[in-house]
Design a protein that fits this description.
Shape: globular
Strand content: 15-25%
Number of domains: 1
CATH architecture: 2-Layer Sandwich
CATH class: Alpha Beta
Order of helices and strands: EHHEEHEEEHH
CATH topology: Alpha-Beta Plaits
Distance between the termini: 28 Å
Length: about 150
């Protein structure tokens, strides 16, 4: 069965709203992981440099149901939905919600990506964002960074 994938980016408001932004991120991840697992949705979330970038994959109805609640979440603004994609296999099968947060390793990656590709990663297309997120998730999780939020 083909996987429906929805990707978006938005401006993070957590840092201005909550003194303990990592604590708020942990709450967000706990709820997201439980909801996603219950609906058979997998994906990944990047939280860095004032930006969220997220990719969700699974049954189209389930992904769209989750995204409706994401659109209403006051912890971000300026949502830009990228063109949806369909592919044969799950890309994030190991994670109900993989997470890459602020880290030296991620910052270095973004800088290298921008230098090599000549544009800001936060403006990437859906396909490019998928590759960035997959690469970051694999690298961050294999390195054991952000252990509390993994």
């Amino acid at each position: 069965m083909p996987m429906f994938s929805l990707a978006y980016r938005s401006r993070n408001l957590i840092e201005g709203m909550f003194p303990d932004s990592l604590g708020e991120m942990q709450k967000l991840l706990d709820v997201s992981r439980a909801r996603n697992a219950g609906l058979g949705v997998t994906g990944a979330l990047i939280f860095n440099e004032g930006v969220f970038a997220q990719i969700l994959e699974g049954d189209e109805a389930a992904v769209r149901e989750i995204f409706k609640s994401i659109e209403k979440d006051p912890r971000h603004t300026g949502i830009v939905v990228l063109p949806s994609q369909t592919y044969d296999d799950r890309r994030f099968e190991k994670w109900s919600m993989a997470f890459v947060g602020p880290s030296k390793r991620a910052s270095d990656y973004y800088e290298r990506f921008s230098l090599i590709n000549g544009f800001e990663w936060t403006r990437a297309s859906a396909g490019a964002l998928l590759e960035i997120v997959l690469d970051l998730v694999e690298n961050e999780n294999s390195a054991g960074t952000n252990p509390k939020l993994n």
